[in-house]
Design goal:
26% of the residues lie in helices and 32% in strands. The chain is built from 6 helices and 14 strands. The chain is globular, with a radius of gyration of 17 Å.
C-alpha cells in the first residue's frame, strides 16, 4: 500500500499521557478509507496504531518523542527475569476468543481502578470498553489467560500479515508478583515465533516515560526512526537513538 496520498484528519490538542506538562495531538486516517488487516499492517510499519476502528499516529507540535517499536521475534531470547516470569506462570493456560464478555469487563474495571485511576478511561463505561478494544475491520483476538478457573489477564491482539500487534493488556492488579503484563507479551512473542511471523508490534515507546520503559526489555527491539526501522540493543543506546 502506498501511503503518499493518505488523507489524515488532525485531532484536537490534549494533555499528554506520557510526558508531563506537554500537549499531545494525533492525526487520524480518514474514516472513509476502507481498512483491512493488510492495509493496517502497512500502516503499522509506517508508525500508525489503532484505537477501536480508527487508525492514528502522533502529530504533536515540536515533539517527536513517540516512536513505534517492534520485537524481532526470530532472534528473541528471554532474559533471566523473563525466564523466571515464564516459570512462575507455568500453570497458566491460554484460550483465544473472538469476543469479550462481562467477566472480562469486570477485570478491566479492577485493573483501571488500581493502575490508571486518572488515565481518562472510565471503568464504568462498558460501551467505551468494547469500542476501544474491538475492531470492525480487523482480525482481532482476545487472548484469555487463566489458572484453573481464575481469570488472570486478557490481551487484545491484532493479526496482520507480518506479525501480531499488541493492542492492550489488562490483568488482575492484586497479583503484582506474577508479572502478568510481562508474561502476556512473552506469550505473544512465542506464539508469533511458532507461527513463523517476524514481528510483535508493541506500539509506541517514549524516552523518559516510566509507563513505556518495560518495552525495551524485549530484545532485540526495532525502533522506527525517520530513516526507517533500526534494530537497537541496550537501554542507553536505545534512548539515544529514539531521541534522534
Amino acid at each position: 500500500m502506498s501511503l503518499q496520498n493518505l488523507r489524515l484528519l488532525l485531532g484536537a490538542s490534549h494533555l499528554c499521557g506520557y510526558l508531563p506538562q506537554r500537549a499531545a495531538r494525533s492525526a487520524f486516517v480518514d474514516p472513509a478509507l476502507k481498512l483491512d488487516p493488510g492495509t493496517y499492517g502497512s500502516l503499522l510499519d509506517s508508525g500508525f496504531r489503532r484505537s477501536g476502528d480508527y487508525a492514528y499516529r502522533p502529530m504533536c507540535v515540536g515533539c517527536r518523542a513517540c516512536r513505534s517499536v517492534r520485537v524481532a521475534v526470530e532472534d528473541f531470547n528471554p532474559n533471566r527475569s523473563q525466564r523466571r516470569c515464564l516459570h512462575r506462570n507455568a500453570g497458566v493456560r491460554l484460550r483465544v476468543l473472538n469476543r469479550l464478555d462481562d467477566e472480562h469487563y469486570e477485570l478491566y474495571r479492577a485493573y483501571l481502578t488500581a493502575r490508571h485511576p486518572d488515565g481518562g478511561m472510565d471503568p464504568d463505561d462498558g460501551e467505551a470498553f468494547r469500542e476501544f478494544l474491538g475492531c470492525g475491520w480487523g482480525t482481532t483476538e482476545f487472548w484469555e489467560l487463566r489458572e484453573g478457573a481464575k481469570l488472570l489477564a486478557v490481551s487484545v491482539v491484532d493479526r496482520v500479515p507480518r506479525g501480531f500487534s499488541a493492542v492492550y493488556t489488562f490483568f488482575d492488579p492484586k497479583l503484582p508478583k506474577r508479572g502478568l503484563g510481562t508474561y502476556a507479551i512473552l506469550r505473544q512473542v512465542l506464539a508469533a515465533r511458532d507461527e513463523g511471523l517476524p514481528y510483535l508490534y508493541l506500539g509506541y515507546w517514549v524516552a523518559g516515560s516510566d509507563k513505556m520503559d518495560y518495552k525495551k526489555n524485549f530484545q532485540p527491539l526495532e525502533i522506527l526512526l525517520p530513516s526507517g526501522w533500526s534494530r537497537i540493543a541496550g537501554g542507553e543506546a536505545f534512548a539515544d537513538n529514539a531521541a534522534s
